[in-house]
Amino acid sequence: MLSRLLMSIGIARSFIGAPASIEVIVADNSSTDDTAAIAAAHGARVVPVEKRCIAAARNGGAAFAKGEILAFVDADMVVNAQSFASIVECMLDSRVLGGATGVRLDRLSPGIALTFGMMLPMIWLTGFDTGVVFCRRSDFVHIGGYDETRLFAEDVDFLWRLTRLGKLRGAKLIRLRHAKAIASTRKFDRYGDWHYFTQMPSLAWRAWRSPGSVSDWARRYWYEDR
Q: What is the pTM of this model?
């Protein structure tokens, strides 16, 4: 999947006037596969990040980036060809603090569609989204980057803190809905198209009875599932 992402990034880079200005960094979060070799073969800079945590991987990549604008994307996504051109254009506006492109899924089924549909009201209410998440480096540093104590939902927390900063500055987050990334449904392929409805109730119950069990579940779901 990483090759697919990096090929799409290569296409998106060609849509701006200076493709070389887009620096591509792959945070190798203690992978046990060919992540580093694949990234290097596509000309990406590989940054090893030992701490097994999505937030740590994002922070680790950002620490080595040289650009004024930071953009984050998961390795199993595909970026839209207009992504970088659209990000550069909107970030010329000082009233824009950052934002996200949003996503569409690489396949749909009744279970996946219903799961995705349940998340839409929260996106509409908060303005938070996923896909390619972007902001200025200075603002990233100002809010302390991603929270490495969180094993999941680190992106929601990050955008929430970015929004609070925006309120102080009269700036806002935007959604680049015309440049949506394609998100993988590999977790649905692995656990079933209805697994959110079969697993989430029991997860909520365990969270109430034993908060520590949520961390155990997150490690199995996001970090230990090969």
A: 0.89
